[in-house]
Amino acid sequence: MRIDKDLVAASASPLVLAILCEGETYGYALLQRVREVSGGDMEWADGMLYPLLHRLERQRWVTADWRTPPGGRRRKYYAITPEGRAALAEQRRQWGAVVRALEGVWPSLPSAALPAPGGA
């Protein structure tokens, strides 16, 4: 399934912040986790993730530091800050309101009002 780029962009910050609540991690692992939690529906490229991470750093919602694990490659690890957790809590509240609004109107749509999945 292709997800519209506006919807991907709107969900990117809360998704990354939520993943970082699971524990600190590095960019490639974030990309893998996004793919995993979306069931493969969301495939982000480096060109989307790293500008987002830089913005989250500027907002002080994440911190980053370079590390080289024993026998491993040097990687930049990201961690969520208390400010990032507060921002995620607010975004979660807002997304909940959006989901409730959509769930409030979608069941009343007649199936004939929408094309079949994959149809035009």
TrEMBL record:
Residues 16-90 form the Transcription regulator PadR N-terminal domain. It comes from the Bacteria. Signal peptide: none annotated. Pfam families: PadR (PF03551). This is PadR family transcriptional regulator. Gene3D superfamilies: Winged helix-like DNA-binding domain superfamily/Winged helix DNA-binding domain. SUPFAM superfamilies: Winged helix' DNA-binding domain. It comes from Pseudokineococcus lusitanus. PANTHER family: PADR-FAMILY TRANSCRIPTIONAL REGULATOR (PTHR33169), TRANSCRIPTIONAL REGULATOR RV3488 (PTHR33169:SF14).
